[in-house]
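re: ur question from yesterday

yeah so i grabbed the chain u mentioned. its 506 aa long if i counted rite. heres the sequnce exactly as i have it in my notes:
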Amino acid sequence: MDRRLVLIAWSALLLAYALGACVPVMDVDAAQYASMSAQMVREGNWLQVFDRDASYLDKPPLLFWLSALSLKVFGLEPWAYKLPSILFALAGCWGVFKFARLHRDARTAHTAALVFGSSVAMLQMTNDVRCDTLLTSNVILGLWAGMAWLNGRRTHHLLLAALFIGLAMLAKGPIGLVVPALALGGHVAITGQWRALRDPRLLFVPVILAVFLLPMCIGLYQQHGADGLRFYFWDQSFGRITGSNRWQDDSTGFFFLHTFLWVALPWTLFALTGLFSVILRRGRSLPEYASISGVVLTVIALSFSHYKLPHYLFVVMPLASVIAAHALGNTHARVLDFFQFAIVLCIGGGALWLSLKSFPIDNPIWPYALIACFLLAIVVYARSTSASRALWPSLIVSIGTALVINGHFYPALLKFQAGSQVGIKVRELKIPEGRPGEPRNDEPCPRLPCRVQRPLAARHRRSARSHAPGALHLLQRGRSSSAVERWTCSNGNVDLPCIPGAGAHD
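ran it thru and got these structure tokens back, copy pasting raw so excuse formatting
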């Protein structure tokens, strides 16, 4: 594979990630996590986690620690909140390359990293930043180090595996250990490398994990007692399978099967081709079995959960990318190339149509960039006869789509996110902190302190004289046009895009 082309592709992807970093933080989860990270900076309490002065017990603290450190260094900006997760995501792409390179040639390894870096999952993880970005990246880095240890039995690889698995557990709980255990355990079982499990150096792993988890456990015990430790080690992950966790929904056991179809875009076709080829040939086409074990066993385990969300599947996408890259390099059916090219054209065309139809064009550079990518992809597809015929046209259109989504679609869409728009006004007016629970001007993405806007207006139809001077208080709403609602505040009027009945979450 031409290294110059690889460098150009990664430069374009980095531009797309940078555009996404500058997009306002999205409600609900990401805005909540950014607010909590800012509160950690203000109060200097790094062991105990609070959400608006209320004790918080849901996610482990790694995201809050890293984001708080970034906010402290770079200031209270949305991109500062996202920066640590984006850097870890890039490290995850490197981990995909290193993992694939252990058993495959450099071409397949580069393809796997590009497939992961240009997937819908990666686009979401670097934009709507949650705990899954850190989890996914550290899991694939841990898998690379673990597989390297199984191959060469070098102690430093085992220590690295324990380090990354510890970070994965700090990111989202025991799932950070379960996925590597399923992947590596499947590989050991199929290849018969049972002797590796008797290596005394494996005793280093629980010791390193304990050291990494100790600060979090101290904070959990100080804040929540033994219930906090039980929640982290059992209820948060395994409790969703047993039903002891309070989070439950009515999704079926097939939820992640149809979710995979869009999460793996635009590489779904080759990911499924690789999976089915392995199953039909009983695994004889794979040089290693951690990838297939990690994907299949993890999806089966997650499907037993009583509560499912699409981003739970992100953790298997690095392994699915390796399988897709293997299929891209070993499947030479022209019909697959044709359908793959048709899929990416539909994705790119749909993104362009949606962006242009839904929102006015303030900066035409990104739609024009996607159109240029369309034309270039058509030329490359028509002239290519190599095994990369499906790769490069798909990658070109994917990059163009990511540019138009992060450069035009999301910035225009999030103008209708009431919480961030109020937050922008709070910071522009330099309004000091008011009563507890009101918008603050010292958060990267202040959240509107209500569940919907209409009750807020009714609740605060009182005289501005009854409120503290300088604080922002939404008092009354009146429509000033078909697209804008004017909110009367104690400091003046604030015009917000109108979405009837919508509002930010508490």
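noticed a couple things. Strands lie at 50-51, 54-55, 474-479, 484-489, 492-497. also Confidence is low (pLDDT under 50) at residues 448-506.
anyway ttyl
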